Amino acid sequence: MVCPSWFSFILYNPIRKAFTDRHKIIAESGVTSMSIVFEVGAGNGFLTETLAEHAQKVYALELQEGMVKKLQKRINRFGNKVQIIHSDIAEYKIQESFADVCIMYYSFHEVSDKPEAARNIGKAVKMNGLISIYEPTIEVTKTGMIETANLFKAAGFVEEINWNNLLTRFVRLRKSLRV
User: 153 has which bridge partners?
Assistant: First the structure.
């Protein structure tokens, strides 16, 4: 189930900010000052604003109109460095090979058509580009995370890193010629 926009205060609050090292997420995801980043499920901008501070350009895709409005307010100060895309990732007509890095922070489990979304994301990421997927352990089982990684492997990615802790499951994959 998608987190409703009226409940978005839970996504962006002082406690979450204190316990989430957004700079570590960005480093672990391979984002540099030259990166073009595609953030799928940007929500109200919890990660987007930090991405905008570190990347060359951020394309922030969000499905819900209410979240898009909150996101616009949060990233307004970054001008054209952040472009908001209001769409469903599985239905969006994607530009091919534009992103160096795709980040999904606690969002992929909410996608309704995961196989089509994975194919679309796979098209968006450049050769040798990265996908970082962070998911909540309370909503995504270890098996579910393996299934997610397998969707991206089928789209031409090779797993580089994965870990689990009390709250989060993580996998980073690289687009590769060898599948």
Answer: none
Domains defined for the chain, CATH in brackets:
8-129 (3.40.50.150)
Number of residues assigned to the chain: 179
Task: Report yes or no: 109 and 135 within 8 Å, Cβ to Cβ.
Answer: yes
Question: Rounded distance, CA 138 to CA 178, Å?
Answer: 33
Per residue in 61-110, pLDDT (tens digit) is 999 999 899 899 999 999 999 999 999 999 999 999 999 999 999 999 99
Whole-angstrom distance, CA of residue 96 vs CA of residue 117:
14
Rounded CA separation 45/121 (Å): 20
Residue 97's alpha-carbon distances to 21, 36, 52, 137, 157, in angstroms, are 29, 10, 20, 31, 14
What is the pTM assigned to this prediction? 0.90
